[in-house]
Design goal:
Blueprint (H helix, E strand, L loop, with lengths): L2 E6 L7 H14 L3 E5 L2 H7 L2 E4 L26 H14 L3 E6 L1 H12 L4 E5 L15 H22 L2 E6 L6 H9 L4 E3 L7 H13 L5 E6 L5 H12 L3 E5 L11 H19 L5 E6 L2 E6 H6 L6 H10 L2
Parallel strand pairs: 1-2, 1-4, 4-5, 5-10, 6-8, 6-9, 7-8
Antiparallel strand pairs: 2-3, 10-11
Bound molecules: 6-O-phosphono-beta-D-fructofuranose (F6P).
GO molecular function: 6-phosphofructokinase activity
Subcellular location: Cytoplasm
Keywords: Allosteric enzyme, ATP-binding, Cytoplasm, Glycolysis, Kinase, Magnesium, Metal-binding, Nucleotide-binding, Transferase
């Protein structure tokens, strides 16, 4: 293994830059030439490669976004697109590729490895929705961003004695909603992994109101429904002044937390070590605090699970 490349793919996540830095610096430390691929798989198909030196990843550890840019490529899903990418990799003489992204990105990486080309995945998505790892890069920062926003909304909710519904991201997973809801003390947390009872939510809001609470906070994961649907139902059933806030892409940006920087650094270095050891077609992950790796196909077979004990605890604490 002499030359490796790294790309970011799918929705960006805080910590991706820290992971790029770790791949580049660990690669150079191991005596490799390291290339960055711009614009994810789109850049792989068009040969948008740049050689990375130590300085190219200076001053990025703390920055959100991705210096390599990201894309969700439809063309790369085709056999033609994959052949074109392989041809570009061969032309530059790249021997291995690190893909930082979500499960869709690993499907693409798996296609290259099925044709013999070594790829290693690093889970990078704010959603924390990838099976085969307890953690995905960006999740901690996104949760902190959501909690900070909810804390601020709580101030104005109290002043005006309002009920607030906060819609958070997460695609089909409820992890961001669960963690943000728990850490911001939401009355109800609505996630795809648990059935929600509108009457239960209304009872909780009313009970709080009766004991003098000045506001109610409901956190809803985007994978369940729109925040406005819940807000309308609440207003209809309680008559309370209700507002809806959609946090949206605000959750995807910002400087990564120390935890995200740590995970990105460890996973980035591990990905390079695995390539050097001759591994391919695997995703780096963390399980019970230990760095591990799982074949893409195995991770794809499982479904990501959420820690329901947090859900039940949150319910018992927000009575
Ligand atoms: O996967 C990350 C994520 O931010 C999801 O939480 C969200 O559903 C989706 O990406 C939004 O995608 P886009 O940036 O393409 O609108």
């Amino acid at each position: 293994m002499n030359k490796i490349a790294v790309l970011t793919s799918g929705g960006d996540a805080p910590g991706m830059n820290a992971a790029i830095r770790a791949v580049v610096r660990r690669g150079i430390f191991k005596g490799l030439d390291v290339y960055g691929v711009k614009n994810g798989y789109d850049g792989l198909m068009t040969g948008n490669f740049i050689q990375m030196d130590l300085g190219s990843v200076g001053d990025i550890l703390h920055r959100g976004g991705t210096i390599l840019y990201s894309a969700r490529s439809e063309r790369f899903k085709t056999a033609d697109g994959q052949q074109q990418a392989l041809a570009q990799l061969m032309e530059v003489g790249i021997d291995g590729l690190v893909v930082i992204g979500g499960d869709g990105s690993f499907k693409g990486a798996g296609k290259l490895t099925a044709q013999g080309f070594p790829t290693i995945g690093i889970p990078g998505t704010i959603d924390n929705d990838i099976a085969g790892t307890d953690y995905t890069i960006g999740f901690d920062t996104a949760v902190n961003t959501a909690v900070e926003a909810i804390d601020k909304i709580r101030d104005t909710a109290s002043s005006h004695e309002r009920t607030y519904v906060i819609e958070v991201m997460g695609r089909d997973a409820g992890d961001i909603a669960l963690w943000a809801g728990m850490c911001a003390g939401a009355e109800s947390i609505i996630i795809p992994e648990a059935n929600y009872e509108i009457n239960d939510m209304i009872d909780r809001i009313k009970q709080g109101h009766e004991r003098g609470k000045l506001h109610s906070i409901i956190v809803v994961a985007e994978g369940v429904c729109k925040g406005t649907d819940i807000g309308n139902m609440i207003e209809e059933k309680t008559g309370f002044d209700t507002r809806v806030a959609v946090l949206g892409h605000f959750q995807r940006g910002g400087s990564p937390t120390a935890y995200d920087r740590m995970m990105s650094s460890q996973m980035g270095a591990k990905a390079v070590d695995l390539l050097v050891e001759g591994k391919k077609g695997v995703m780096v992950g963390v399980k019970n605090g230990q760095l591990i790796y799982t074949p893409f196909e195995e991770a794809a077979k499982d479904r990501h699970t959420i820690d329901m004990s947090i859900y039940h605890l949150a319910r018992s604490l927000s009575i």
